[in-house]
Amino acid sequence: MRCFCCSSKPFQACCEPFIKGDKTPVTAEQLMRSRFSAYATAQYAYILDTYTQEKQQGLSVDDLAQSAQGAKWFALQVHYAQSEESAEPNTSATLHSDTVEFTAFYFEDKKMYQLHETSNFRVENGAWRYHDGTLHDDCGKVKYGRNLPCVCGSNKKFKQCCANKSH
């Protein structure tokens, strides 16, 4: 089965090892893709664990599950990932951060929506973590032609691919 994050890899060789804890993402993009796959498979404990410690405060697995209730995540498009590395003043420590812009597609009540975000990731205790993000103005309900190429990149028409996931 192709990975939920719309990479060309099978789920078992892409995001599943991260979600199961068998591997750790080595880039912010890998973390972002695995978080999307975790939303698609309702693995809310993984999502909570991949927030920065600061952002985990006041969140719970139940909160995440409730906020995602009714949404069926089905496709992801990564627009870009940008890394930054800088030395912290008066130390030899290097801070790592990364920005990933993406659009995630989901169905809710058989209608198609998109979430377009530029996310900020940080390395915390040696692992990438999601910190926060900025939503773009084009978030919300989307009208998409059934005969257009599917948003997941499968090279099939939307009606023959992900449109079937709205049920």
Question: If you had to describe this structure to a student in words, what would you say it looks like?
Answer:
The structure is a single chain. This protein is an alpha+beta fold and 167 residues long. The chain has one domain (11-166): Roll (Nuclear Transport Factor 2, Chain: A). It has 5 helices and 5 strands. Strand 2 and strand 3 (111-124) form a beta hairpin. The longest helix is centred in the first third of the chain and has 13 residues, at 28-40. The chain starts with 15 loop residues before the first helix and ends in a 26-residue tail after the last strand. Mean pLDDT is 92; it is low at 86-93.
Please describe the structure with a list of short key phrases separated by commas or semicolons:
167 residues; alpha+beta; Nuclear Transport Factor 2, Chain: A; five-stranded antiparallel β-sheet; 5 helices; 5 strands
Number of domains: 1
Helical/strand content category: alpha+beta
How many strand segments? 5
Low-confidence stretches: 86-93
Q: What proportion of the residues form beta strands (DSSP E)? A: 25-35%
Number of helices in the DSSP assignment: 5
The percentage helix is 10-25%
The CATH architecture designation is Roll
> Do you know the CATH topology?
Nuclear Transport Factor 2, Chain: A
Rg from C-alpha positions?
Answer: 17 Å
First-residue to last-residue Cα separation? 19 Å
The main sheet comes to: 5 strands, antiparallel
Which CATH C-level class is it? Alpha Beta
